[in-house]
Structures are given as C-alpha cells and as structure tokens.
Amino acid sequence: MAEKIRLPFGTISIPERSKTIIIEVLESKRVSNGKYVREFEKGFAALLGVQEAVAVSSGTDADVLALSVLYDIGARRGDEVIVPALSFVATGNAVLHAGFTPVFVDIDRKTLNIDPGKIEKAITEKTVAIMPVHLMGKPAEMDTITHIAKKNGLSVIEDAAEAHGALYKGKNVGTIGDMGAFSLYIAHIITTIEGGIVTTNNSDFAEILRSLRSHGRACKCEQCVLNITSGYCARRFQGKDGEDIRFTFERVGYSSKMNELEAAVGIGNLDEYHTILEKRRNNLMYLLDKFKKFGSYLESIHEESFERIGPHAFPVIIQEGAHFTRNQLVNFLENRGIDTRNLFSSMPTQCNGFRFLGYKTGDFPNAEYIGNNGLHIGIHQDLGKEHIEYFLDVVEDFLSQKAGK
Ligand SMILES: Cc1ncc(COP(=O)(O)O)c(C=O)c1O
Fold first, then answer.
1. Ligand 1 centroid vs 263 CA: distance in angstroms?
2. Are the C-beta atoms of residues 32 and 259 closer than 8 Å to each other?
3. Burial level of 267, CB count in 10 A (0-12/13-18/19+)?
C-alpha cells in the first residue's frame, strides 16, 4: 500500500472565488492589469501589515524592479549589491539584470542564509544595497543586516521569494528592509501561477515601482498605472503646458505587469492563506522534529524561538563523512515517488553565467557544500501526515540499506 503514495514537489489551489472572478474577467474582456490586481495588492499588503504592495510578472522581476528603484535615490549602473552566494539563481540574475554588480558573500551552513559576520568585509565605496535571501523560509539575521546597512548608508532589499508566512522577532519577513520581493510562482504559498510582488512602507518607492513595471511611465493616473478607471488617461492633458504625457517616460522601465486572471488566482489564495499556511506548518514542524533521529547522516534547518520559518519546502543536507552520495539518496527517493530538487548552487562558482565575474571554486565553501550535498522536498497543503510518515520511512530504509553494505 505504502508504494502507492507519491509526494509531488508542488501543488496549486484554485479556489471557487478565483474561478468566479476569472469567468467575470474573461467575459468583461478587461483582462490586463486592473481592479483585481489592485484588490490583490491591497489584500497582500494588509496580510503583511505593510503600506504598499506592487504586483509584477514574476519573483525575479520583483527583485529586479525593487533594485531598480535605487537609481531614483542616487545609485549608478555598475554599483554593487551584496547577496548570499547560495540562492536560487534568480537572485544573482536579478542583480545583473538591474544593472548592478553582485558581490557574493558565503552563507552560514546552519541557517542556509548569508553569514552576517562576512558582510562588512564585502562593502566597498560602490556598495548600494544588501539583498539577503530568506532561503527555505528561514529568516536571515535581519537585526545584524539592518544594523550594518544603517551604519554604512545602504538600502536593504529582502528577497522573500520563499518566505511567505515567515516571522522574524514578531515582524513579517519582507517588511523589515526598505523593500521585500516575493515570488508568487506555483510552488509558493500564495500563488498567482506566475507572478511576484514588492512590499514597502515607502509610498514614493511604490510609485516608482508602478512606473517601472509599466516602461518607466511618467503619468501616475490610475488609468495609466493601474488601468482601473474606464476611458482615457485622467491626466491626458495635464503634463507641463497641458501636453499629453501618456507616452512620456521618466526612467528605464520594464514591461512587467500582472494581469487580472493571475490576480484572480491570488485573491482566492489570500482567502485560503491561513488554512494553507497551517497545513504546511504542521508538515514542516512534524518533519523538523522527526528528522532529528537521522542527525548523524542528514541535517535540516532549525527554528529559533524568535522566529517562525515560512513553510516553503523541507531542506535536507547530507552530513560530512556520510557513506553515500546525494545522487544515491535522490535516486532512492525518486524511485519511491518522492520528488526532490537540489538545494540550489553557489551562484558565483557553480553557475556558469557568473563565471565572468572571476570567482573560483573554493571561494564559498559553505555555499558550495550545500550546492553539492543539499536537496529539498515539497511540504505543501496536499500532503498530510501519511505522506510525511512515508517519506520518513523511505529515508530510514535508505539509511539502513546503506549501513548494511
Ligand atoms: C530565492 C528566490 N528568489 C527569486 C526567485 C524568483 O521567482 P520567480 O520564479 O517567480 O521568478 C525564486 C523562485 O522561486 C527564489 O526561490
């Protein structure tokens, strides 16, 4: 019976409310960025207790656009942004796409996050921001990071792509820095299928973000930026000397709007958020507890008393000296219906696209170790205790077979 159990990596919930809105939107033919995107943004902001949320096309774009806001406050192309060496590759890509140079800092292997003790050494006169990543929903050490940033006049942009539902000292992750960037891709807790959203308490930044997602547009009226009033631009002839400013562009922008169909999925997900979060948290906490018994061979992360890990996925790291390889474990799990993903890579030394920056293998030993020995599995809302027990049994089986050899 147990053999029939499968643990797919991800899932998606499309609640009835989403389906109703989707049909209404399709029939109305007003499908591009409009009133439902705005409703979703307001709901997301309210959930996090933050003033503004600006929806975009992807989590990567959320990173890119948040970084691009820095040009409005004095940053120049080619300036530097400090990021952890280990993350999903989108973090490093986003820094380059925004026109900055990523400066990588190794991680702490226990937290999987940027090692705060190594940040100051990486700061130069070109540094404009620190972009910590809350990997696997585990909050980065924000007190130290914000302290270093303040001391050195740097902005903080949180890559909270994987950190829906995470708390750091009572605060929602993604609301602690100057801006937070979330992914809304399918595997994430709140999803719009494809999508991303930037959170901020700075209304000027929000206005810049709305301009950036729409080609750097100058007009700030709802028709141009939010597309929620009917008819023509409300400020059509309100530019200087009464000229038409609909096609006036103030900054280098992007085409990165969310559409109404995606927002509809997001609105339904917001309604279900607490249920989804609770199911995922139950899976995560159960696993974190039971997994301790494999401690001589396999590790995961640990939840500190001052934090709540956002239940994105469950990371597994093969301990040094274990008598098996990641491939062996992955094959064993996959052959028994358990989907796995590697736990990303050291971007500067294990991802080809960053070679031109000149880093070499060995520069980031902790990130590289995880890149070679880490994996993660899904803990989403369609999985329950029987799936988690099955996973634990399969791991136990694997370890006893390996021990027997
Ligand atoms: C840490 C991190 N940053 C950025 C992204 C990019 O998000 P998206 O895939 O929505 O572009 C992801 C994707 O999951 C991620 O894990």
1. 18
2. yes
3. buried
Give residue 244's pLDDT band: very low, low, confident or very high (50, 70, 90): confident
- Which domains does the chain show, CATH number per domain? 16-265 (3.40.640.10), 273-404 (3.90.1150.10)
- Report helix, strand and coil shares of the chain as percent, to nearest 5: 45, 15, 40
Return the best residue to mutate from 86, 162, 344 for the ligand 1 pocket (most ligand atoms within 8 A of CB).
Answer: 162
- Tokens for 361, please give them: 């293998």
Is residue 233 pLDDT above 70, yes or no? no
> What is the number of the ligand 1 atom nearest to the C-alpha of 87?
1
Is 256 touching ligand 1 by the criterion CB < 6 Å?
A: no
Contact 84, 132 (CB under 8 A): yes
Is residue 161 within 6 Å of ligand 1 at its C-beta? yes
Output the pLDDT for position 108. Answer: 98
Name the residue among 350, 372, 370 with its Cα closest to residue 360: 350
Neighbour-count burial of 41, counting CB atoms closer than 10 A to its CB (0-12 exposed, 13-18 middle, 19+ buried)? buried
- 376 residue type, one letter: H
User: Can you read off the two tokens belonging to residue 229?
Assistant: 């009033």
Work out the number of other CB atoms within 10 angstroms of the CB of residue 46: 11
State how far the Cα of 150 lies from the Cα of 171, in Å rounded to an integer: 18
> Residue 241 to residues 112, 236, 238, 244: CA-CA distances in angstroms?
55, 12, 8, 9
Q: What is the pLDDT of residues 371-400, one digit of tens each?
A: 999 999 999 999 999 999 999 999 999 999
- Residue of 114, 162, 183, 254 to mutate, ligand 1, most atoms within 8 A of C-beta: 183
Decide: 344 in ligand 1 pocket, CB within 6 A.
Answer: no
CA geometry: angle 170, 116, 87, nearest 5 deg: 85
Ligand 1 centre from 135 Cα, in Å?
A: 10
Condensed to tens digits (0 to 9), the pLDDT of residues 43-62 reads: 999 999 999 999 999 999 99
- State in Å: Cα 145 to ligand 1 middle: 21
Measured in Å, residue 11 CA sits from the centre of ligand 1 at 16
Longest dimension (CA), the chain: 83
